[in-house]
Write a structure and sequence with these properties.
Layout (H helix, E strand, L loop, with lengths): L9 H14 L5 H28 L1 H19 L1 H9 L5 H14 L2 E6 L3 E2 L3 E9 L6 H16 L4 E3 L5 E3 L2 E8 L3 H8 L1
Antiparallel strand pairs: 1-3, 2-3, 3-6, 4-6, 5-6
Helix pairs in contact: 2-3, 4-7, 5-6
């Protein structure tokens, strides 16, 4: 009896290579042909089952589709999501502690927060005193702004541009806190 000539697709050959690598030996054509035929039957049944499920449960299928798309998007933008994971998400108490420690080193004292404004983001007003008497109004504002921007650069909080004011050694300003991943992604891009 003459040897039967098998035709395998490029994908079939990739599977064969994988199997041979795992097995550590060659897979005979006849054995691999049976495997591929069984695999195709199983795949056909699986596809029919998925189609039936999609027809019977369209809402669940849509949710699953959204989930898979979000996974694909995260995989596609892996570097961006790695940066997002490194952002320090501070609550107000931790924010106040962090700012108080860092600003005291630069001779700013008595940091106080007002009641936060709750909206899409959290906005909070602060007051702080400049304890360095020989610093000018301009220097006091710019040093504080640079310091706060530097401290908050890797957090979910930002100094609102143009919000820092100086009067008689007291500085006021506003900070914005972000909670949603979409907003944080805008911060790091």
């Amino acid at each position: 009896m003459a040897d039967k000539k098998y035709k395998f697709t490029g994908y079939d050959l990739k599977i064969r290579h994988y199997l041979e690598k795992r097995r550590g030996s060659k897979v005979p054509d006849a054995e691999f042909y049976k495997f591929i035929q069984e695999y195709k039957r199983w795949l056909s049944k699986f596809i029919k089952a998925v189609k039936k499920w999609v027809e019977e449960k369209p809402w669940e299928a849509e949710q699953l589709s959204k989930l898979v798309k979000s996974w694909e998007e995260k995989e596609k933008n892996k570097k961006l999501y790695d940066k997002l994971a490194k952002i320090q998400r501070l609550n107000i108490a931790n924010l106040q502690r962090l700012l108080a420690l860092a600003t005291e080193k630069e001779k700013y004292i008595k940091l106080k927060f007002s009641k936060p404004e709750m909206g899409k983001d959290v906005i909070i007003r602060f007051t702080i005193q400049d304890n360095k008497t020989d610093r000018t109004e301009y220097d006091s504002r710019t040093v504080l702004q640079k310091l706060i921007k530097q401290i908050l650069s890797n957090t979910n909080w930002r100094l609102i541009t143009g919000s820092v004011y100086y009067r008689l050694g007291i500085l006021t300003g506003r900070l914005r806190g972000y909670e949603l991943d979409e907003d944080l992604i805008k911060l790091i891009t």
